[in-house]
Predict the structure.
Amino acid sequence: MPIDIDFFLETVARAVAETRTPVVDLIAVQTRDPFRILVATILSARTKDEVTAVAADRLFRMADTREKLARLSEEEIAHLIYPVGFYRSKAGYLKQLPEALQTFGGKVPETIDDLVTLPGVGRKTANLVRSVAFGRPAICVDTHVHRIMNIWGYVDTDSPLKTEIALRRTLPERHWLRVNSLLVAFGQSICRPVSPHCDICPLLGPCPQNGVTPRKIMKKSANGNRQTLRFISWNVNGIRAVAQKGFTEAMTGFDADIIAIQETKAHPDQLPPEVKNIDGYTSYWHSAERKGYSGVAIYSRLQPDRVITGLGNPEFDCEGRVLTLEFPSFYLINIYFPNSGEGLKRLDYKLRFNQQLIDFASRLNRDRMVVLCGDFNVAHKPIDLKNPAANVKNAGFTPEERAWMDSFIEAGFVDTFRMFNQETEQYTWWSYRFNARAKNVGWRIDYFCVDQASRDRVRNAAILPEIMGSDHCPVQIDLLP
Ligand code: SF4
């Protein structure tokens, strides 16, 4: 049944009345200056509001007009706006902006067609500037608007552009100007991208919750005061690259106790402090000897009793693939399994690594629960990839690799995701080619596994495909430690 959009948006407006105003709206209220609104909107893309606000303030102190901005070098702009996401690219856009505005007599243009000709201005930014700076009818569809409108079933689309087109047809014009700021505030506070807070949402009941896995509240166990812990595992395909694509925001949004990262491709001393030290977490690292290759890390809110790096075999440990934290009631083993490689050149290496991993995990399992997670680099069953028949000879789905996964399960470990979900098309990795992620042509190769005796402690397992930034998405479990 279609939702009552007036009721939904009014409810959201009441729910976010106390929350912080999105930074671009705030700047609009403070200045009413289209130039500053345009610059702040460019800065705000893929950046937290707090960061945008500080960076915009620093920049406007030096250059609050087109003429003053033209006098700054690209390097100076980059320095002033750091650490907004993609600050180097944005510095380049801002350097070109004064000249680009000459075409419009030095003023910010009002139409979408003109705005999108400016450097760093896509359709979303253009819509936001048009509505916020000029009060013109425009629907700015960012990821929050796109996501929430689909959750509500008000549109059924697979891209922000399609959502914008659909909303132009169906959303009454009286909502156009404010829908973005309402849903951004709502998306940042209640209907969050990861684990929305449905338990406190005033729309719980009428909301269809399409495709949503609500957050689990930390519960007391039946027999005492133990609580569930949340674990995340994510192959980031280069932590320095993902740091430019909202990594710290995603890490904070997970609200997890332990976050295991694979394929860091960096030593910790190569990272900026805000990536290495995330508020509330201590990070642990095992990097490959070869720079820019492989590597794993764990961010933990809990203090481990012991940290074990590698498997105790130099042949594998030089590649920085295994990191284990020991806690009083469990071990967490974070693994980046080798890829069999082109022509299956590394299949032998991988199978030897895999066997040693089973021995290592089984040994630890003698005295307590074992949680294994990471990029296993194998799709276990035909249900775990889009095109099984076409991939039987390819790395990640060879009979040998799948047989190893069988032996891993037989050795007493459980694929937790399949405890809760038997559906097809549940993937964690998509090729960057052929628009594979948008078409959901993927593989499920990232897992959380536990030893058989501990399976009842697992309360939830999920894939988080909405988290972007890598060719893998994160996976999650909640469990009773
Ligand atoms: S009930 Fe949950 S999914 Fe629906 S709007 Fe509220 S937070 Fe979002």
